[in-house]
Amino acid sequence: MATHARARLLDTAEELFYAEGIRAVGVERILAESGVGRASFYRHFTGKDELVVAVLTRRDRAWRDWLAAGVAERGGRPLDVFDALAERFARADFRGCAFINTMVETADPDSPAHRVAAAHKRQVVAYVAGLLAAQGRPAEEAAALARRLVLLMDGAIVTALREGTPDAAAEARAVAAALLAAGAGTGGAALEESCAAPADRG
Which residues are CB-neighbours of 111 under 8 A, at least 6 positions away? Predict the structure, then answer.
């Protein structure tokens, strides 16, 4: 039963934090909607801050597993991350990136929640670098390109939230394709040529 109570707290908190924001949701709301009593809550967590960290840690694993599975289903190529994101953007419950949202809400970079969110982004960069390395990119080039692709991923996430459509994923994919064609350098000419012509969405 104790395990079930912890799971209900995590499930409820994750849903509410993502939908409404961490600051907007208090412990009382989580207790009311989860059906878990206050005493049980404090057996599992010292307070809201620890709950936030637990939610983010669990979501980090689940989100990266989801991304890896989505990319693998599509062929395991670096650009497949954008096609997976497009699927996520089309969901009715899409509210952006929980980790970007957390870093905006918890501006202190030394706070536990901010550190978990930042670590998540580093893990995503490492994952994308691994996809690039698997295609034969040298490690240094893969690392540089991965940072740029994740920048595009984050930009697409914010744009999709602002515009309410998944179109930003395809646009970011086109820019990413130009970056990959140009390599880790500036790639100005290749990027300009790609952006001037219709993107290959295949």
Answer: none
CATH code for the domain defined by 59-196: 1.10.357.10
Q: Where are the domains of the chain?
A: 1-45, 59-196
Confidence of residue 26 (pLDDT cuts 50, 70, 90): very high
pLDDT in tens, 2-16: 679 999 999 999 999
The model scores a pTM over 0.85: yes
Q: Write the secondary structure of 162-181 as one string of H (helix), E (strand) and C (coil).
A: HHCCCHHHHHHHHHHHHHHH
The top-level CATH class assigned to 1-45 is mainly alpha
pLDDT digits (tens, 9 = 90+) for 115-134: 999 999 999 999 999 999 99
Residue 30: burial class (beta carbons within 10 Å; 0-12, 13-18, 19+): buried
